[in-house]
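Field guide to reading this record: the first block holds the primary sequence, the second block holds the structure written as discrete tokens, and the final block holds curator observations. Each block starts with its own label. This record concerns Aspartate carbamoyltransferase, catalogued under organism Enterocloster bolteae 90A9.

BLOCK 1 — SEQUENCE
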Amino acid sequence: MRHLLNPLDFSVEEIDDLLALARDIEQNLPGYAHVCDGKKLATLFYEPSTRTRLSFEAAMLNLGGNVLGFSSANSSSAAKGESVADTIRMISCYADICAMRHPKEGAAFVAAQKAQIPVINAGDGGHQHPTQTLTDLMTIRSMKGRLDNLTVGFCGDLKFGRTVHSLINAMVRYPNVKFILISPPELRIPDNIRDDVLIANNVPFEEVGNLDDALGQLDILYMTRVQKERFFNEEDYIRLKDCYILDKKKMKLAKEDMYVLHPLPRVNEISVEVDDDPRAAYFKQAQYGVYVRMALIMRLLEVQKPC
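BLOCK 2 — STRUCTURE
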């Protein structure tokens, strides 16, 4: 039995195989309608979510399975004080696989230690978000045709952005990838990512404060929102929330084949006028999330591809 708690739980070869399966699902979706007949996915979401939770549910339903679970801690026995360890023991009696989102870093790891079913980390605090990373990798490869020889810019909340941390962890394994980290000083990438991932792997990177100066160098721009829920001081959030706004004027500074990704939801960091730009890939990115999660469910349940 395998779990997915961290992007590095899968080798590069396994990720390539998973993305190939996701691509086949995209092209032959009806053919996968019964591969998980009789299987159940539990969605344990202690934090609010739209795309991740619903894409997991859509993925399992597309495969012919069923879904059960909860969408907030207040609607579960966590409100009565039940531990994650006890919850997952109970859920293991009801479902074949589960996806968990939790505000506390390491919660999915705790669940995996006690589970009798595969556990998928759907986001744990500011730590990791491996299924979003798989979605991002599929989007980048679909847009650019490769995952190597790229300059990738991350812009916005790099301190608390678990999608940023996960994607950097995954992409340092591909050759000739450079990162440009665009943020205000208060939201810079954490030391454990800078020192233990980028510097330790001799990956070239720059830390800058100006988006305009970086745009012309990028093959991919990964925008993020400033996350209000991660701030203890609302004044700091208000001061920082609109520090970067991507609009049509800024897009003119970028290459014709630079694509914009965003894990969503957005607030003000991408103007709606950018949505019509052919380089805006974030809604396609959300669609790819369903195919990737379908492929992942199949792999963790050891379900075979239909003939």
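BLOCK 3 — OBSERVATIONS
The mean pLDDT is 91.
The CA atoms of residues 260 and 280 lie 5 Å apart.
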